[in-house]
Amino acid sequence: MTLAITAGILVAGAVYLLMRREMLLIILGFVLLSHAANLIIMAAGGASRREEPFGTPDDISVVADPLPQAFVLTAIVIAFAITIFMLVLAGTGTDTDNAEDGATDEDEPQPNESGTAEPSMSNEREEASA
Amino acid sequence: MIGSLLPLFVAIPLIAAGFLTIIGHRPRLHLVVMFAVITGALAGSIALVAALVGGRTYAHGVGSWGFGIAIPFVADMFSALMLVVTGLLAVVCVLFAVIAHRTMSRFFAPLILVLVGGVNGVLLTADLFNMFVFIEVMLLPSYGLFVLARYGEAPLGRIAGARLYVVLNLLTSTIFLIGVGFVYGTAGTVNMAELAGAAAEDSTVAIAGSLCLFALGIKAAIVPVHGWLAKAYPATSPAITALFSGLHTKVAIYGIYRIYAYMYDGDARWLWIGVLLFCATMLLGVLGAVGEKTTRSILAFHMVSQIGYIMLGIALFTEAGLAAGIFYLLHHMIVKASLFLSTGAIEVTYGSGKIGEVQGMAKREPILAAAFFVAALSLAGIPPFSGFVAKMSLIFAALDAGQIAAVVIMLVVSIITLLSMLKIWGGVFWGKEKFPETPPITAGSALATTQVAAQKKVGAALMAPAVILALVTLGLGLGAELLMSLSQTAAAGLLDPTSYIEAVMGS
């Protein structure tokens, strides 16, 4: 139950942060979300067995399932890699890390740097500000 | 014996990619190795299809561990056909990318190779967690390609597109991962052969599996969750849009077909959800396309609509329906790439993909116009081309299953598809010659800065990829029996997983 409550809190925090405007907060939301995912996978291995799966255990029924641990280990590095890439994306592009900058949002007039932008994109942007 | 060669589809691209990063920046060697590997993969997958005719299945437990412990690599007709078509698209789109963007980024070739390795891995694996890992192997180089493909610099719009793309994909991957966790928690395994029928028997497994299906549904851009694709795909360079259009969403569709056919055993209780969602996808996707103003965003919305058609095959879950869906999937990957490549060639050369800014291309570029026209008619489903066979068989399958509403929507959507294809035709190819005022900044048209627009033309090499794929769709339309019989073999494999399960267990 503790695992479920913790995962629930993490997901709630993640959803809240993902809805925010700043890219950095969105990234923090993803950090929380991948924490939640890892916790869920650890819980999937059966949380009642707590001995470490290491060496030659006397009683196999109290040893934790090693497969979810391997899953989590893999998922951690993948999420880590993407988080790094997202942090770089947050620092590239404009001088702020506002996630709604650029062509993904047509409702707001965009900072127009069409001199460097691809023609089709700058067209979209003109259209948006028109 | 053949089974133990399957991991090479993943190993060789990855080894080659590692090799290319080590040797540093030698553009010519990079190109040679990249094309050698991806054409080799294409040849290998064609040989695999030939070896699989008759409904055989090959499997290999990696590391020669026993069943249930090893990660299984399985090839049946469905995965082999997907390997062939994704292989073909990789070769053709990369060719286009190389010609269009002569100044390639330093890591272009390694990224493409990792992408191909990842796609092959998703198609061949029979293990849910391993599928997640290979999806990430496929996505990570895609993020790089999304921003890097041209010049080694990225305009602002592309960064914004990349942010959306990365955020969306990380979110869905995490949902998929959570789904895999729940499947392991409820069913006790993530091996597809052991999971066979598990979700049909136990509703907790079905709920867990539905999370995986939902995540793959977002990646495939099914209607309630399709907006990202229409925004993100037009934001990258034309060559990369074409490449991604054939690989990413289609791999997700493949995943949904596999999971629903095996894990859910085609459970008839939930098929109505599919019919509902996929009909909505067809309709809303095509309506979005009618409203767009640049060629690539029109085509991106069309992709959403066509994904609805493909997915309807699994929602019918009859032999005819699955075969039609698989045929549609293979046909659509080729046609869509052809459309993105022919309009992309114009965008690269003349610098604009906006409807009405470039005009009169039919007279100026007759071969390219013909390629676009063929692919557009094929997309709408006009007789001599493969789209007709695909739509026809899908409509018959839907009639057989009694889904009259779906048939009506399919027919109506075809008309709207034709309408917006004619809009591109009228806006870009028809009329008097007209060029955008601002010179394009693409590397493929470096001449543009020194010469006036009227002296440029799309080179033969740049239009070749679109023409090749247009010829393939014509060939598939005239000689449809071959691909149809292969699709039926693939559908039989989905309908009856026995040989798949036996192959995995014996590996």
TrEMBL record, chain A:
Compositional bias of kind Polar residues: 111-122
Signal sequence segment: none
InterPro entries noted in UniProt: CPA3_antiporter_subunitC, NUOK/Mnh_C1-like
Places the protein is found: Cell membrane
Pfam families attached to this UniProt entry: Oxidored_q2
The entry's keywords: Cell membrane, Membrane, Transmembrane, Transmembrane helix
Region called Disordered, residue ranges: 96-130
Domain of life: Bacteria
Residue stretches of biased makeup (Acidic residues): 97-110
UniProt protein name: Multicomponent Na+:H+ antiporter subunit C
Bilayer disposition of the protein: Multi-pass membrane protein
Annotated transmembrane regions: 24-47, 67-90
Family the entry assigns: Belongs to the CPA3 antiporters (TC 2.A.63) subunit C family.
TrEMBL record, chain B:
Pfam family membership, one: Proton_antipo_M
Residue ranges annotated for the NADH:quinone oxidoreductase/Mrp antiporter transmembrane domain, each copy included: 126-417
The entry's keywords: Cell membrane, Membrane, Transmembrane, Transmembrane helix
Protein's membrane topology: Multi-pass membrane protein
Localisation: Cell membrane; Membrane
The organism's place on the tree of life at top rank: Bacteria
Transmembrane segments annotated in the record for this chain: 6-24, 31-53, 73-100, 107-126, 132-152, 164-185, 205-230, 242-264, 270-291, 298-317, 323-346, 367-389, 401-422, 458-478
PANTHER family: NA(+)_H(+) ANTIPORTER SUBUNIT D1, NADH DEHYDROGENASE
UniProt record similarity statement: Belongs to the CPA3 antiporters (TC 2.A.63) subunit D family.
NCBIfam families, sorted: PRK08375.1-4
Protein name per its UniProtKB record: Multicomponent Na+:H+ antiporter subunit D
